[in-house]
Write a structure and sequence with these properties.
The chain is built from nine helices and eight strands. The relative contact order is 0.18.
């Protein structure tokens, strides 16, 4: 919940992109990147406040022990599972809630067992096409330019498509019984306060190095100040 809108997400992604590509550059090159605010919360029971979530067994990614440790420190009940075990876990009661993009909730049928969705973007999903340095260097300069330009265009298209797919997925699941719960301003403020407790814990972990995390915060202050001036 660091980002409050798609515009903020897009702004920070583009500002950080040169730095991220430079960090890749010794071993690889990226030619297409995108991010979409997608991490909705699916629950088996209606829940609107963070405190309710602490009472439920919550899915955590296998292989990400730092995430599970942070969740435990905040009083949650993480259950570490592989993606293939999510649906059986919901069916058997091993878990009762999970974050998921609407598209995957529909495709993998999570919503059939967790039929309440909190209409709140919890976390963005970020992806990129990454090419090994050896393969990249084997291309001619003209080939590199063409591939990068194609990747830029594809990134824009993928962001548009993925966001539309999520909206369509929510509509399809609602027709099949999914209950989507809006978040009041008061509840959203409570969720943001809860999320802010995570910041010191994820700074330097979960792939967010301290300087990178601080730069994201600086860029958000910059973008929000610009938006405030325009208003």
């Amino acid at each position: 919940m660091i980002f409050r809108s798609r515009e903020e997400l897009d702004y920070v992604r583009e500002k950080l992109r040169p730095t991220l590509e430079k960090r890749f550059s010794t071993r690889a090159s990226s030619c297409c990147a995108g991010a979409t605010p997608a991490g909705a919360l699916l629950l088996q029971v209606a829940g609107y406040q963070p405190g309710r979530l602490r009472k439920l067994k919550l899915f955590a990614w296998a292989g990400d022990s730092a995430q599970a440790d942070i969740m435990k420190a905040l009083g949650y009940q993480p259950v570490v599972l592989e993606v293939a075990d999510i649906l059986p876990g919901l069916q058997t009661g091993m878990i009762a809630a999970l974050p998921s993009s609407p598209f995957w909730a529909l495709t993998l049928q999570f919503y059939t067992q967790a039929d309440h969705m909190l209409d709140m973007n919890w976390a963005p999903l970020v992806g990129a096409v990454v090419i090994t340095r050896k393969s990249w260097d084997s291309l001619s300069p003209a080939g590199q330019k063409a591939l990068r330009e194609a990747g830029e265009a594809a990134g824009v298209q993928l962001r548009t498509i993925s966001r539309r797919e999520n909206e369509e997925a929510v509509a399809a699941m609602k027709r099949r019984g999914l209950k989507v719960h809006s978040v009041t301003p008061e509840a959203e403020a409570e969720w943001r306060r809860t999320a802010e407790q995570l910041y010191l814990m994820i700074r330097g972990t979960l792939g967010a190095g301290g300087p990178a995390f601080d730069e994201v915060q600086r860029l958000l202050r910059e973008q929000r100040a610009a938006v405030a001036v325009r208003r």
